[in-house]
Design goal:
By secondary structure, the protein is mostly helical. 39% of the residues lie in helices and 6% in strands. It contains 5 helices and 2 strands; from the N terminus they run βααβααα. A two-stranded parallel sheet has the order 1-2. The longest helix has 13 residues, at 63-75. It is elongated and about 50 Å long.
């Protein structure tokens, strides 16, 4: 039987997500640390996920949304149009330093 693989990345450990983002609780890094400490996640079962490229993201998001995220990350501010059209800058989708990274 083939052993299961864990796909993740250390970038999730360092993101701030903002104080209202649902992922602000460090779930991913906590699970990674716990499974490694228990010996359940040997290095050969961990696959470092690649960073998604904008061309791949259009399978799930519109080009306008991707562009807005990139601009908002650079400016660290969402416009009224960003909030109305994409919900960027709201409590459920807050602006934070790594919003697109």
């Amino acid at each position: 039987m083939q052993r299961p693989m864990f796909i993740g990345h250390e970038i999730f450990r360092h993101s701030t997500y903002g104080r209202w983002h649902p992922l602000r609780v460090p779930r991913v890094s906590t699970v990674m640390d716990l499974t490694r400490a228990l010996g359940w996640l040997p290095s050969e079962q961990f696959i470092t996920s690649p960073r998604a490229k904008p061309a791949a993201l259009i399978n799930w998001h519109t080009p306008a949304y991707i562009s807005a995220l990139q601009r908002v990350q650079q400016q660290q501010d969402a416009t009224e149009q960003d909030r109305k059209r994409h919900d960027i800058g709201s409590v459920t989708n807050p602006v934070f330093p790594e919003i697109f990274s």
